[in-house]
Amino acid sequence: MGRGYQADVTPAEAWGTLSSESGAVLVDVRTAAEWNYVGLPDLSAIGAPLIKLEWQSFPSGAVDPTFAEKLDLELKKQGTAHDAPLFFICRSGQRSASAASAVTSAGYSRCYNIAGGFEGPRDSDGHRGTSEGWKAARLPWVQS
Questions:
Q1: Number of domains in the chain
Q2: Which residue positions in the chain have pLDDT lower than 70?
Q3: What is the DSSP string of the chain?
């Protein structure tokens, strides 16, 4: 756990736990613009909760200093235990790693960063979503 959270996992590993372990939660830390224009993981087929909570504001990029407190309140409302698996996702896996570390520091013991995030890095053509991440793993997602 040298990164400040439990581990980095692949999108498929996160999906597997979200599908099989009651109480597992996916936390999308991207911005509202990303949720609205890029899309969201679709967990409707497995009934796992998706919490949308911005780690950084747009366009300033400022980290929300109350992120862990806000998430803690939301998790308590849902009855989520402190030892439930929490999976954090952003565009590429950077912001979500920071969020997972902050929430681990706030007392949640099973925080995981989804490596590659929702879209992953750019490919040779400059496009995201083709080589790594939730979309590239062909996991369910929706776009508004």
A1: 1
A2: 1-2
A3: -TTSSSEEE-HHHHHHHHHHSTT-EEEE-S-HHHHHHT-EE--TTTT--EEE--SB-TTT--B-TTHHHHHHHHHHHHT--TTS-EEEE-SSSHHHHHHHHHHHHTT-S-EEEETTTTT-S--TTS-SSSSSHHHHTT--EE--
